[in-house]
Amino acid sequence: MPRRSDARGQGLFRLTARLTPARFVAISCVVFAGLLAVWWGVTASGLVKPLFLPGPDRVFARLADLAASGQLWEDAGVSIYRIMVGFLIATVLAVPIGVLIGCYRAWEAIIEPVVDFVRYMPVVAFVPLTILWAGTGDGQKFLIIWIGTFFQQVLLIMDNVKRVPWDFVNVGRTLELKEREILARIVVPAALPGIWDSLRISLGWAWTWLVLAELVAATSGLGYRIVTAQRFFQTETIIGYILVLGLFGLVTDQAMKAIAKRLFRYAEARR
Amino acid sequence: MTQPKLSVSGLTKTFARGSERIRVLDGIDLEIPENEFVSLVGTSGCGKSTLLSIVAGLEDHDTGSVLVDGQPVEGPGRDRGVVFQSYTLFPWLTARQNVEFALRAAGLKGADLRDRALEHLALVGLERFADAHPNQLSGGMKQRVAIARALSYRPKILLMDEPFGALDALTRHHMQELLTRVWERHRLTVLFITHDVEEAVYLSDRVAVMSNQPGRIKEIVPITIDRPRPYDITSTPEFMALHRRVLASIREESIRIAQMDDAIG
């Protein structure tokens, strides 16, 4: 048998230790199952009152009811629509602006400090203002999602563009390409995998801002249902919807990752 | 006497460092006749890469002139192909598409593109890897594609900025042999930057040694070794004598710089 240095070091704290994909998934599943077991344990034993934390059986039963009645799909549909529109508006604006200020110092001087300033203003504090400006309809949800993601996206995308090696631009110059051709055919394609990753990260935040907006002022959506459930002490619904939100976040994140893997196969480092 | 392919004369370049100005290049004169291979060697920071950038038109200079075929250089251009030290293949394109990218910029179209790209990949021995992406290629292979790309649009001069600097010793030797073979067959005008003296002597017709602070051309050593040059000539007494001579010239510089630093410090 050849000696493998890997085989000796499968400890939890061994740097660069390898793990097969199957084992990775297995470990993750065990952790989820463990958490579920703890949850079930503390509720089934009566350690925690159902009003504060109902057992997993009751939560899943409630979710099943809501799914059967169509309520869950209706709420989710409204929320997904809002997040898609809000996120798209933010992205469509942020990508060109991020590329612009990542490429040109003068534009960076004009835009970056303002964006950086706004970025540190708490999104939560904008909620009353957005209600004043846009009411309590979908427009206000889009606005909150936009405020929460656009400014972050711009800065992330600027960084993605700045990380494109200067020598890539120099190659374009030695080929006598025009500045705009260098931008379109070299800088943007080179930055694209990074930009996609930034969008994936910001989509995660968008979910948070959506629910925030729906908690404060809404007449529909997952966040709204959580607030009404609280009013009627329906803890099962609250926890069920929080789990659903987590699941949506996880699914969209994995979907974005899977798409990146297909689109940017060339960007994967060989190991 | 025919006009040199590349002519640099009285070139100076200063950089601002804090409140003072550092003279990086000071009165550089260098002429390269057509089809000559000239290497520029010197200690790190002597300004050799800056000189190459200026010749490439990627950096400007203060005084003096850079002429290609008697015409002053104004910015970068396709008459000068550049191979950079860093890997500059576009990762989203295959090896062939990388070469085609350059050819398309040079105005080629249709079937010519593909043929010429494959021809140049074959020149560097990579026709089998035409459809591989850079992440599937080793460092040496990437630089070979970069050389193919720079040669594909037939520039008048090839400028190489330590192209093998990031490669391991064995790969570097292979690359040097390959470049020598390509050069001996196709005869190009090359300005090659390196800090590896053996590499410079092996590849070049002349080796220009640069001094440091300020950067000047201190000495030009003609390399009188016959071609073709198989790699084992590196162990001949003739080669070793030239190698020693260039090395001694550079050593003088590094000692002088060290003493200068001591005097200041």
Strand content of chain A: under 5%
CATH level 1 name of chain A = Mainly Alpha
What portion of residues of chain B belong to β-strands? 15-25%
Q: What is the count of β-strands of chain B?
A: 10
Distance between the termini of chain B: 49 Å
What is the assigned CATH homologous superfamily of chain A? MetI-like
Can you tell me about this structure?
Chain A is globular. Chain A has helices at residues 5-8, 21-44, 56-69, 71-103, 105-119, 123-134, 138-162, 166-174, 179-216, 222-231, 235-263. Chain A has 11 helices and no strands. The relative contact order of chain A is 0.11. With 271 residues, chain A is an all-alpha fold. In chain A, α10 (222-231) runs antiparallel to α11. Chain A has a single domain (60-265), classed as MetI-like fold, CATH 1.10.3720. By secondary structure, chain B is α/β, with parallel strands linked by helices. Chain B has helices at residues 48-56, 95-105, 111-123, 139-152, 169-186, 197-203, 237-264; strands at 6-17, 20-32, 37-41, 63-68, 71-72, 80-83, 157-161, 189-194, 206-211, 216-222. In chain B, the strands form 2 sheets. A 6-stranded mixed sheet of chain B has the order 6-7-8-3-9-10, sandwiched between helices. A 4-stranded antiparallel sheet of chain B has the order 2-1-4-5, with helices on one face. The N and C termini of chain B lie far apart (49 Å).
